[in-house]
Amino acid sequence: MRTFVLRARAAPTDSQVLLASVGGDAHTEILAHTLMNAFFVAQAHRPDVVVYLVLESTRDFSRTLRFEVNAMHDIGGFDERTLLGKVARGLDASRGMGKDEERPVEAGVTVRTTSFERLVQTLAVDHQLFLMDRKGTPIGEQSFADAPCFLLTDHIPMPKKTIPGLERLGAKKITLGPTMLFASQCVVLIHHALDQR
After folding, report:
1. What's CA 33's distance to the chain center, in Å?
2. How far is CA 15 from CA 20, 55, 90, 123, 180, in A?
3. CA distances for 83 relative to 26, 45, 141, angstroms
4. Contact at 8 Å (CB) between 55 and 12?
5. What is the pTM for the complete model shown?
6. What is the rounded average pLDDT of the residues 93-97?
7. For residues 7 and 65, what is the distance between their CA atoms, to the nearest angstrom?
8. Which pLDDT does position 5 carry in this prediction?
9. d(CA 90, CA 83)
10. Domains, the chain
């Protein structure tokens, strides 16, 4: 199982604002691109992939949407509109939820009112954590266990104060090269690197 966590710090948790933000400063299209590149290959989809989207621009609680491809009966397509529609439905399902509550949205999709930090603490129990960092170990030199989890961000970098806490949870820094890439591009290169093993 391969797991990807996208910390979308600028992504709004209101579904209508999210959809209206495509192409704007929040760059909400990165959510769709990350799902697209995590799940789809030519004329098929990848099995055994989970993606968490953590949307943090909110008045109350972050929203964490979990997409598990093996349990998704009808993905419905890989265009931006379809995938952002799934994100919007998850946000609509989260209305009225209190802190750290979870609800099903549709097959293979759940929403939870939990923070990035709390999510990563949970994942650290049974996943090997990797944080993208230009000064990290080159991905080709890194060994991977059966359940790697890759921590990514949108266009806003990971806060420096967060990184020591991630390292205490066992997160290792890895790099895909000296060029800063979009999260969705990182997903493609990570899949490729793991496919070669």
Report:
1. 11
2. 9, 11, 8, 26, 29
3. 17, 14, 33
4. yes
5. 0.94
6. 93
7. 11
8. 98
9. 11
10. 2-195 (3.40.1280.10)
pLDDT value at 18 more than 80: yes
- Six-digit token pair at 133? 């960092």
Displacement of CA 178 from its chain's centroid (Å):
22
Q: What is the mean pLDDT of residues 60-77?
A: 88
Rounded to 10°, the helix 29-39/80-93 angle is: 110
Sheet holding 172-175, edge to edge: 102-106, 109-112, 63-68, 49-57, 2-12, 148-153, 128-138, 172-175
CB count within 10 Å of CB 197 equals 7
Residue 43, phi-psi category: left (phi > 0), alpha (psi -120 to 50), beta (remainder): left
**H or E element, residue 102:** strand 102-106
Site of tokens 């290959």? 41
Q: Which of 12, 101, 112 is nearest to 55 (CA)?
A: 12
Percent of the chain with pLDDT over 70: 100
For 137, the 3-state DSSP assignment is strand
The whole-angstrom separation of Cα 84 and Cα 82 is 6
